[in-house]
Design brief:
Oligomer: single chain
CATH topology: Methane Monooxygenase Hydroxylase, Chain G, domain 1
CATH architecture: Up-down Bundle
Shape: globular
Radius of gyration: 23 Å
Helix content: 55-70%
Largest sheet: none
Distance between the termini: 65 Å
């Protein structure tokens, strides 16, 4: 045991920040930590708010990474995209872990403040919508919950006007000499594309000769890894909601658990999952 308490200043640690930028200054912690404003007196409402706010922060980073990956693939430089997509997968791992914390809240505890939410719902998250649109799950009808925010609709419309992450992967296949059929001639990016047997054949060729097509092979696996974690997030969302509210309707008017279960059937990169069967 030391004779006196450790003084970090003796090792050169900065201790005075009156005219210097501190940790809290750099991270704008006053603004971040003042952003939790429970409406009720329920103990668990703070948990609910923080879980969703931190999820939105992770989604902000995911949007940044997916957008940068799209740009890298578009300029025929997919290697930087590999790390970005790996990071997105790890982000969704963090989002998955967040459900574990929320599941510590019981149905009776949620009931204490659920009415305070009004019609607000995670269904209305425009960042989640941006991630879906960027990845390739494109449904213009989902712009409607954001119609009261023209700047948000403009942002989402801008995403819909350009190729998605998967679209860019398919266009890269075409530039590398593969026949991807109608996906190589698309000009309207707003609508969800259908499965394409020529795309399936292209990915099959890549998987059968990974050494020859290493970049495309690695890109395919990074995409599958991303969707794997994304699917787990959706599944955990469903089970958490069912555990807490059962089959009640969602606060935003959806059918709640039933709506979320429908979303489990949506595939972002269908041919990359189908190719496992035909190899």
């Amino acid at each position: 045991m030391t004779s006196k308490p450790y003084n970090p200043a003796e090792d050169g640690a900065e201790m005075s920040f009156r005219e210097k930028m501190s940790y809290a200054d750099y991270l704008s912690l006053d603004r971040v930590l003042d952003a939790q404003n429970p409406i009720s007196q329920a103990h668990d409402e703070l948990l609910f708010i923080i879980q969703h706010q931190t999820s939105e922060l992770w989604m902000k980073l995911a949007i940044h990474e997916i957008g940068s990956a799209i740009e890298a693939i578009r300029r025929d430089d997919p290697q930087p995209a590999f790390k970005m997509l790996s990071r997105v997968a790890r982000i969704f791992e963090q989002l998955n872990n967040a459900w574990d914390v929320l599941r510590t809240m019981t149905p009776s505890e949620y009931t204490e403040f659920r009415a305070s939410l009004g019609q607000s719902s995670g269904f209305q998250s425009y960042q989640y919508r941006a991630i879906e649109f960027l990845a390739g799950n494109r449904n213009p009808a989902m712009l409607k919950p954001h119609s009261h925010r023209p700047e948000i609709v403009t942002m989402l419309e801008d995403i819909l006007a350009r190729p998605s992450l998967y679209d860019e992967a398919l266009l890269l296949l075409a530039r590398r000499g593969f026949d991807i059929g109608e996906d190589g001639a698309r000009t309207d990016w707003r609508e969800m594309r259908g499965e394409n047997p020529k795309v399936l054949d292209a990915w099959k060729a890549v998987y059968e000769a990974p050494g020859k097509y290493w970049e495309l092979y690695e890109l395919a696996e990074k995409l599958v890894d991303f969707e794997d974690y994304f699917r787990r997030w959706r599944f955990n969302h469903v089970t958490t909601v069912e555990r807490v509210i059962g089959f009640k309707r969602g606060t935003g008017g959806t059918s709640g658990t039933q709506y979320l279960k429908k979303m489990l059937d949506v595939e972002l990169f269908p041919e990359l999952w189908r190719v496992r069967t035909v190899l």
